[in-house]
Design brief:
The structure holds three protein chains of three kinds. By secondary structure, chain B is an alpha+beta fold. Chain B has helices at 29-35, 82-85, 89-92, 116-124, and strands at residues 8-9, 14-19, 22-27, 38-42, 49-50, 55-61, 65-69, 74-79, 100-104. Chain C has three domains: 8-61, no CATH class; 86-341, Aspartate Aminotransferase, domain 2 (3-Layer(aba) Sandwich), CATH 3.40.640; 351-470, Aspartate Aminotransferase, domain 1, CATH 3.90.1150. Classes of the chains: A alpha/beta, B alpha+beta, C alpha/beta.
């Protein structure tokens, strides 16, 4: 019995058993009580050759409709991904390494994490970043737990304009971890100061605002951040980092903790994962951050070197008193984003942002000019927008699928009051021809 | 390992120096040695009312973190701010560098602590 | 280029670029009309300006300072650093253009893959149903502890607020239970890390929600009293949670479900060969027995009317644990691995992993102090060198191994072993590799006697040498600052 990933020949096994004076492999399992042993083969497929495995996966791939022209966003975005990213992240020096516990032979990983932390801080205008989190939703839940720990309060005001799945995730964490989630109503798609003031009280640990919000609109917490701070509560902003090529940074706005989903920065759609959560904050709260953090130091010869630091916050040392139970980061995804940001650079990020805004507004203008579609909200948006229609969503979806296009999400599945509202997304990757075709198909529907 | 005479000691390796009704509280040489290089000290808030065995602070080294429990009850009247910027002071001189000063609310608790001879014997059995 | 030590920011020159975008093909509006100026950033984004060649060389050069499984032997105990098959990587690219919210009819292949993988994992672990949602092992633990709480809440048993965790457990266990809102009751283990039945009995009462265990335990020892343990906990009204960290020891031999565990999590990045990625992404599926299926995270993947669906109508579910369905790309890799190995191959993998660990245990025990004498499972644990007179610590041995071109084993874990050195060879290492490792370990033991100072200052020829970790933690420098700032 030989397998390509297991090098043992029959001869090797004999030699090894003899060398260590063991009579058989079975004797290593003798301590397992007989009554719990499986004593049968798994009910699983037989071993397959590489060619057969590929055929099987090709079959599964072909059951999907791949390479759709996406006008859907809602937390996962079809952006341009520079080719260089895969060439770097497919180096097995990176992807077959473990968490950098032995810094002497892990400077590659540690250095890109340090670069990643720097870029996240520069983008958001915050002081310190951790080495990344699982995804946007969990980064937000972690940010909230951090705020409840800093303020020793346990009520959390969450904007109702956040991604519904993120709100659900926050509620899951809240139910078990013991913080109360109160949703802030929106007016015309935005959180208002009046609503906030109504809910703020001495139990409130933090206010969570996403920007752009789920409807694609740009919130303006700058107008009420002082009220939050006067209440000794924290402002958490969950942002799409790509938008920070243009949009005001959470640092400029005065946010205390910033989290979000960085899939927009060089990470493929991949049916929802793996993606990249990020979390950064002000210097004062650095020891309250969850997760890995990489810091700069020197080695015994005085050379600059990097190492995981402030580890006394973490589960392997603090056990049940740790800031979080998180062990890993999404290291390889952080590398993707680091390479993306290095590649796009100072100017490229601005340009890609501008193109998102311009193209989304072009599509918005064209769609809302159609007889069966009308605008819903009035405030500025980034690369997503909501339109209302009197055409049935299923009809729209099917008509677009025929043209190999994917419609935006139907907001009716999340909000009773938003039946027949669609959230479209237009990124820099969509061409004018594709947008025009979208508009043409929509215009032909009744 | 250094043990100073005239101080009170707890089994959790804290020391108490009493001046009037004030108690200076720190961690012992034994504690700093077992922690290694201390990199961070979390101090209590001023005016906090602490009961015996409440958490007074946290001392972190590179690879460990240790809660410091107050061996006596009292109100925090002073914290050693110098430790915030120079946690290594605890390694250099654990008996000069207290963590905090408490105004004692129950002096009889001191009787439950060890003297230097008893503490030395206690450490030898650790 | 071993001495290459630049940061990407230090390569930046104004005006260079590494990207190209097509010119804007729609009519351009004044940006200030679309986004009012008060909503725009005023500060510089301070990203580097570098050419594509600069970027490639930079990341190739720093990659040379890394050590991966593809570089050499990686005996990191409790981490299962087995070989990461290359075909798995290729297969993951098949699904990269799928949007998680695109029409269900257009992602039937992806959903089928997830459904089948969860069935495979249920069969491997003896569970009724497995959810693939958790993003990592710790996330799977958290999901599992939430399920435990949801179960007791459903039965209006609100008193059960405590979870038992043995002192030999990994720190993540108590941390996950605490994040799920439980108090922790730590019980002392026997010397071999197994559960002390008397301590367990004393801890069990009507406030105990359950217990978290791994079997084999963190010392690589199988709980021979496992059936008694599961009986005791169930009789006391608690549930048993199985930490799948050590599943690579027992595939095909025994299943957690058959031992009586109610909830498990798995690490696909350990047992099922998906790469660790320098710290992630991993994947930590959570599985349950029949009576807990309703509590699994949302959405549930089901097969109904000849179609795979994402069912969001699951009222007793603990809820969502992330925006979408877990680390799908990692799931594709694990699925590919299971197909490649097949039902017999998985069992063979565990048997060879255990053979390798026992081989190293026997070969090393003349020089290193065995924590527990006797057969081990997939990993063996030593308590430093046999010769305690040298002053050479587990850390020094580890750093010595780096000098000789190996990755170090896990050290100082489990905490209940003084000077722990935990070695997990995995099944993908050959006899020759093991023999070379043994000879290096013996050489280190010899050096410890003759020249302990050499080890205390090792390594010497690695890209950097021992680091000043105290300095890093006392005055944290967590990002690059441009020199003129």
């Amino acid at each position: 019995m030989t397998y390509k990933y297991i090098p043992h020949t029959e001869e090797d096994i004999k030699t090894m058993l003899k060398e260590i004076n063991a009579e058989s492999i079975d004797c290593f399992f003798r301590d397992i009580p007989e009554e719990v042993k499986l004593n049968r083969d798994y009910n699983l497929p037989d071993s397959m050759s590489e060619l057969d495995v590929v055929r099987r996966l090709q079959e599964l791939r072909d059951l999907n409709t791949n390479n759709l022209v996406h006008f859907i966003g809602a937390g996962s975005y079809d952006h341009y991904i520079p080719s260089i990213i895969k060439h770097i992240t497919s180096r097995s020096e990176y992807y077959t390494a473990y968490t950098p516990y032995q810094p002497e032979i892990a400077q590659g990983t540690l250095q890109y994490i340090f670069e990643y932390q720097t870029m996240i801080c520069n983008l958001t205008g915050m002081d310190v970043s951790n080495a990344s989190m699982y995804d946007g939703a969990t980064s937000c839940a972690e940010a909230i737990m951090m705020a409840t720990s800093i303020t020793r309060r346990n009520k959390v005001l969450v904007s109702s304009t956040m991604h519904p799945h993120t709100i659900e995730t926050i509620k899951t964490y809240g139910h078990y971890n013991g913080f109360d989630v109160v949703l802030l109503n929106h007016q015309d798609g935005l959180v208002t100061e009046d609503e906030l003031v109504k809910q703020l009280n001495s139990e409130v640990a933090c206010v969570v605002i996403s920007n752009p919000n789920f409807f694609g609109l740009i919130e303006n917490p700058e107008t009420y951040v002082q009220k939050i701070h006067d209440n000794k509560s924290l402002l958490i902003m969950m942002v799409n980092p790509l938008s920070l090529g243009i949009l005001k940074t959470p640092g400029e706005i005065g946010a205390d903790i910033v989290c979000g989903e960085a899939q927009s920065l060089g990470i493929p759609l991949s049916f929802g994962g793996p993606y990249l959560g990020f979390l950064c904050t002000k210097k004062d709260y650095v020891r309250k951050m969850p997760g890995r953090i990489c810091g700069q130091t020197t080695d015994v010869d005085g050379r600059r070197a990097f190492v995981l630091t402030l580890q006394a916050r973490e589960q392997h040392i603090r056990r049940e008193k740790a800031n979080s139970n998180i062990c890993s980061n999404q290291s390889l995804m952080a590398l993707m984003t680091t390479v993306y940001l290095a590649t796009m650079g100072k100017e490229g990020l601005k340009e890609v942002c501008l193109q998102n805004i311009q193209k989304a507004h072009y599509a918005y203008k064209k769609i809302t000019a159609l007889p069966n579609f009308e605008p819903v909200f009035t405030s500025p948006f980034f690369n997503e927008f909501v339109v209302k229609t009197n055409v049935d969503y299923e009809v729209i979806k099917e008509a677009l699928l025929k043209e190999n296009m994917m419609a935006g999400v139907h907001l009716g599945i999340y909000y009773e009051e938003l039946k027949n509202h669609i959230l479209f997304c237009v990124t820099e990757k969509r061409t004018k021809a594709e947008i025009d075709r979208l508009v043409q198909v929509l215009g032909g529907l009744k | 390992m250094k043990v100073l005479e005239g101080l009170y000691y707890s089994k959790e390796h804290e020391w108490v120096r009493v001046e009037g009704n004030k108690a200076y509280i720190g961690i012992t040489d034994f504690a700093t040695h077992s922690l290694g290089d201390i990199v961070y000290v979390e101090l209590p808030e001023l005016d906090a009312e602490l009961a015996k065995n409440d958490v007074l602070g946290v001392v972190e080294s590179v690879k460990a973190a240790s809660d410091v429990y107050t061996p006596v009850s009292g109100v925090v009247v002073e914290v050693n701010e110098a430790l915030a910027d120079q946690p290594e002071l605890l390694n250099e001189d654990p008996y000069t560098n207290y963590l905090a000063v408490l105004e004692l609310t129950n002096e009889s608790e001191l009787e439950e602590l060890m003297n230097s001879t008893e503490y030395e014997a206690f450490c030898e059995n650790q | 280029m071993r001495n290459y030590d630049k940061l990407i920011f230090e390569l930046s020159r104004p005006g260079r670029r590494g990207y190209s975008l097509p010119p804007l093909d729609v009519e351009m509006e004044d940006i200030n009309n679309l986004i009012p100026e008060n909503l725009q950033r005023k500060t510089d984004n301070r990203l580097p300006e570098v050419s594509e060649n600069d970027i490639m060389r930079h990341y190739v050069n720093i990659s040379n300072k890394n050590y991966g499984v593809d570089t050499g032997f990686y005996p990191l105990g409790s981490c299962t650093m087995k070989y990461n098959p290359k075909i798995n990587e290729d297969m993951a690219t098949f699904f990269q253009t799928l949007h998680p919210l695109q029409d269900e009819n257009t992602v039937q292949g992806a959903l089928k893959l997830m459904y089948e993988l969860s069935e495979f994992l249920a069969e491997i672990t003896g569970m009724a149903k497995v959810s693939l949602t958790p993003f990592a092992g710790a996330h799977g633990e958290l999901a599992g502890m939430m399920i435990m709480k949801a179960y007791h809440e459903k039965h209006k048993d609100f008193k059960r607020t405590k979870v038992i965790v043995p002192d030999s457990a990994h720190g993540t266990n108590p941390a996950s239970a605490a994040i799920a809102g439980f108090d922790i009751v730590e019980i002392k283990s026997n010397e071999d890390g197994t559960v002390n039945l008397e301590a367990l009995k004393a801890a069990l009462n009507d406030e105990i929600a359950g217990i978290m265990l791994t079997n084999p335990n963190t010392l690589g020892i199988f709980e021979k009293d496992i059936l008694e343990i599961t009986r005791l906990v169930h009789e006391a009204g608690g549930l048993l949670y199985y930490d799948g960290a050590n599943l690579n020891a027992i595939m095909g031999e025994v299943r957690p479900g058959d031992m009586g565990f109610d909830i498990i999590h798995l690490n696909l990045h350990k047992t099922f060969s998906t790469p660790h990625g320098g710290g992630g992404p991993g994947s930590g599926p959570v599985g349950v027995r029949k009576h807990l299926v309703e509590f699994l995270p949302k959405p549930h993947i089901e097969f109904k009317d000849n179609k795979y669906i994402l069912n969001c109508d699951c009222p007793d579910s603990i809820g969502r644990l992330g925006n979408f369905y877990g680390n799908f790309g990692v799931l594709v890799r694990a699925y590919t691995y299971i197909l490649t190995m097949g039902k017999v191959g998985l069992k063979h993998a565990s048997r060879m992993a255990v053979l390798n660990a026992n081989y190293l245990e026997t070969k090393l025990k003349d020089d290193y102090l065995l924590a527990i004498d006797g057969i081990c499972k997939h990993e063996c644990v030593f308590s430093g060198l046999n010769d305690k007179s040298t002053g050479v610590t587990a850390l020094d041995v580890a750093k010595g191994l780096l000098e000789f071109g190996y990755h170090a084993p896990t050290i100082y874990f489990p905490l209940i072993v003084d000077q722990a050195i935990m070695i997990e060879p995995t099944e993908t290492e050959s006899l020759e590799t093991l023999n070379e490792f043994v000879s290096i370990m013996k050489k280190i033991a010899q050096i410890a006697k003759e020249d302990p100072e050499y080890l205390k200052h090792a390594p010497y020829s690695t890209p950097v040498r021992r680091l000043d970790e105290a300095k890093a933690a006392r005055n944290p420098i967590l990002k690059y600052e441009e020199p003129h700032e």
